[in-house]
Amino acid sequence: MTHTTLPRASYDRTGLTTGIVHFGVGGFHRAHQAMFVDKLLARGGAHEWAICGVGVLPGDRRMRDVLTAQDGQYTLSVVEPDGSWDTRVIGSIIEYLYAPDDPEAVLVKLADPATRIVSLTITEGGYGIDAVTGEFDASAPAVVAELAPNAVPATVFGLVVEGLARRRAAGIAPFTVMSCDNIEGNGHVAQRVFGTFARLRDPALGEWIEREVKFPNSMVDRITPVTPPEASGEVLRRTGITDEWPVVTESFSQWVLEDSFTLGRPPYEEAGVQMVRDVAPYELMKLRLLNASHQGVAYFGQLCGYRFVHEAAQDPLFDRFLMRYMDREATPTLRPIPGVDLDLYKRTTIERFANPAIGDTIARLCAESSDRIPKWVLPVIRERLAVDGEIACAAAIVASWARYAEGVDEQGEPIEVVDRLRDELMPLARRQRTEPAAFLTARTVFGDLIDEPRFVRAYLAALESLHTKGARATLTELVGKG
């Protein structure tokens, strides 16, 4: 049977009301947080916790158009390693607002007493954090513009803080701000940046936000690649459903969430969310094992000629390299993690990478490295340096990024470097043939690591090997040690 429009979700959506406003509706949000709420709705509960999506960036226009045309609904397809698909219609997003069209409509929604949670997937770079100071960058042009008198809010900072200001003025309790981005202590980071922005606008408002608003930490995990162009056709072929922007993901999903909310929350635990008092051990595990290992696959994979993650992860050389990194460098930096078998987690991580059905691209992992490497890999290096621990693999990951940032692969083909700091980093990378440590002089990324002799030696050894022997030989030497 062929549908000209998306079929309805499995539950009645007519009585649902918005309780969550979400900034950054992309593939991951639709495969993760929206899916968990959908599970609760399918069980017959959480009717007051449906989602209103909000877009603030020019690239969000298409999401506005697709979700508006499809009444907020879309298909989520879980693809197993054997190629089997399980597709369901997700109906938890019942509204979508595009802030550039009507910022006032977003502010009205934020000020509505029914809105009790504002959640975020705005990427690691969306928080305006200076990589060296770790503080909110108030000098960014968009921030300066929004702090001008009578400015119309246009960024997530301006919109959320103005929404909170209106609630404060009206005597309405503040919503919870729930970050779901891959940042260590994401709730603390969100509290710091929104609080700083608010204090710059109005010190009293900033103090009120710091005192009254809760920012729970969370750890989220589900590999969700950019939807490939052929996905719509594949969904149509398999299910008869027409969906202009489907989501394809893996079967694994995890959400560990600090149970700290201002105005209540959905019964997330009924959908499989782990509600805990302390997220930190779980997020460190994920950031330093899974996310950092993604960086280990990314640049070496590209240089070795791979274009899909599963191709590299199925290579025994990459398997050994990632396990060595996780076992000998990352794992010693972790805290005890209640209820987690770390050996199983690490092996499962590589199995997930090796799933050919996901079609995750090396290019996706290589994007925005200047936001990712400082959060996922450099902390491991710093902690291992402090205890005289092994750093060879982590230093090699950094060196592989530097080699990648030269913009040319080992076959002489151009590499499209996607990074907000590409104009700063690529010239440094291209100097390193004659000035080997040039890349490390980017203190906005590396801070004082260039002043750490042991790290610099390990980095330069890996970089020289990459230049003279190539990526595959460099990996072979690394996994052959010890």
Give a quick summary of the entry.
Helix content is 45%, strand content 11%.
Structure in words:
By secondary structure, the chain is of the alpha/beta class. Helices cover 45% and strands 11% of the residues. It has 21 helices and 11 strands. The protein has helices spanning 27-31, 33-42, 61-69, 103-111, 141-146, 156-170, 186-201, 203-212, 231-239, 280-303, 309-313, 316-330, 342-353, 362-366, 369-376, 378-386, 392-404, 422-431, 443-446, 453-468, 471-479, and strands at residues 18-23, 50-55, 74-79, 85-90, 93-98, 117-120, 176-179, 218-221, 247-249, 254-258, 274-276. It has a 5-stranded parallel sheet, sandwiched between helices. A 3-stranded mixed sheet has the order 4-3-9, with helices on both faces. Strand 3 and strand 4 form a beta hairpin. The longest helix is centred in the middle third of the chain and has 24 residues, at 280-303. The radius of gyration is 23 Å and the shape is globular.
How is the main sheet built? 5 strands, parallel
Measured distance between first and last alpha carbons: 59 Å
- Global outline: globular
Strand portion, in percent?
5-15%
**How many distinct beta strands?**
11
**Largest sheet, spatial ordering of strands:** 5-2-1-6-7
Rg calculated over all Cα atoms = 23 Å
Strand and helix map with partners:
Layout (H helix, E strand, L loop, with lengths): L17 E6 L3 H5 L1 H10 L7 E6 L5 H9 L4 E6 L5 E6 L2 E6 L4 H9 L5 E4 L20 H6 L9 H15 L5 E4 L6 H16 L1 H10 L5 E4 L9 H9 L7 E3 L4 E5 L15 E3 L3 H24 L5 H5 L2 H15 L11 H12 L8 H5 L2 H8 L1 H9 L5 H13 L17 H10 L11 H4 L6 H16 L2 H9 L3
Parallel strand pairs: 1-2, 1-6, 2-5, 3-9, 6-7, 10-11
Antiparallel strand pairs: 3-4, 8-10
Helix pairs in contact: 4-6, 6-7, 7-8, 10-12, 10-15, 10-17, 12-21, 17-20, 20-21
